[in-house]
Design a protein that fits this description.
By secondary structure, this protein is of the alpha+beta class. It folds into two domains: 3-95, Beta Barrel (Ribosomal Protein L25, Chain P); 103-185, RNA Polymerase Alpha Subunit, Chain A, domain 2. Helix content is 17%, strand content 39%. It has helices at 14-22, 44-52, 114-117, 186-198; strands spanning 3-8, 25-31, 38-43, 59-65, 69-80, 87-94, 101-110, 121-124, 128-133, 141-145, 154-156, 167-168, 175-180.
């Protein structure tokens, strides 16, 4: 499990947040199960490394709160700059060992569909699903084998297999991935028609001398 050092802060506001980020410090907020939320700060590089090692922004980690000890939290929401994609802010949620949590986890596709090998088009529609489980049973992603999908086939949430301790909350009818027949390119057909027409011999009308 990834670990993160944080400490509480009293200063807030956009100007102070910009100053913190320029110094390599990331502002955040930590929500407790019963307590009021606390403003916190953490090492920006440390957060970047945690996110780099996971395929989701919802991550169960252990935080060491300065002068208070360690606790487990969910890194639930990460805000990014719309242009630079740099991290701006992180929301942390404390978890209780025996209390279920609800999180969104990534759907990872495994294999190359038979339909794609035959020229079909793969469409990955649903990239994450909502689940409920105890913190100790949380998984970071669900792997879906799509090797047997042929043209015209699809997989839905109801086709996913998960451990019994995991409950899927997303609509079971949601389509995760499908393989469709290749689309006919009208432009290419038009170009081929033009090529055929241009290849026909040109008839030259000669004037008859009187």
């Amino acid at each position: 499990m990834s670990k993160l050092n944080i400490k509480k802060r009293n200063i807030q506001g956009s100007s102070s947040s910009r100053r913190m980020r320029s110094e390599g410090i990331l502002p955040g907020i930590m929500y407790g199960s019963d307590n009021e939320p606390n403003l916190v700060e953490m090492n920006l590089h440390q957060v970047e490394q945690i996110l780099k090692n996971h395929n989701s922004d919802t991550i169960l980690i252990e935080v060491d709160v300065e002068n208070e000890g360690s606790t487990r939290v969910l890194m639930k929401e990460v805000q990014y700059h719309p242009v630079t994609s740099s991290i701006l802010h992180v929301d942390l949620q404390k978890v209780v060992a025996g209390k279920p949590i609800q999180v969104d986890i990534a759907v990872e596709l495994k294999g190359e569909p038979e339909g794609v090998k035959s020229g079909g088009l793969l469409d990955h529609i649903t990239h994450s699903v909502s689940i409920e489980c105890l913190p100790k049973d949380m998984i970071s992603s669900i792997e879906v084998d799509i090797s047997n999908l042929d043209i015209g086939n699809s997989l839905s949430i109801s086709d996913i297999s998960v451990p019994p301790e995991i409950k899927i909350l997303s609509d079971e009818n949601l389509i995760i991935v499908s393989v469709s027949a290749p689309k006919v390119n009208d432009t290419v057909e038009d170009e081929e028609t033009e090529d055929q027409e241009s290849s026909e011999p040109e008839v030259i009308n000669e004037k008859t001398e009187e």
